[in-house]
Known about the structure:
Layout: H1 3-8, H2 10-14, H3 20-32, H4 34-55, H5 62-77, H6 81-84, H7 89-116, H8 119-132, H9 139-146
Amino acid sequence: MDCTFIKNNLFALTEKQLPATELALAKEHIAGCAACSVYVTSFSSIMEVIEKDRKTEPNPFLATRIFQKMESQGAVANHNIFLRIPRVLQPAIAVALILLAVLTGFFAGKQGKQLSQVPAYEKKLNEMKAQMFISELNDEDKTVELYK
């Protein structure tokens, strides 16, 4: 029997699931080997802690406390303004808000378009056309004239 066998079969050894001959040889090796003895003792103490924790009974009132906590948090959530509106009106209000947002965007865009038009530029361009007797200026000409 060697240390690797003990380490590989540690769980079977502590649960006494090895055949009787191997179990006897393993116990003999553990009694003679200090490293394996510490290894088996540590493993056994860990298994005892796990078994003790497994046997711990939960508090019987734990479920009641959890339900009370959930109900109290649900009561706080019911103070939301949208929950006070009847369910039938909620879709109508949502549609009205979306329509309001679209119209606001439309009018804001229209206002921005009006602000971006520069009447002074058009007036100056028309004056230049009249002075030069040109009915139409090319885009290059417009660019050159604007940067003078």
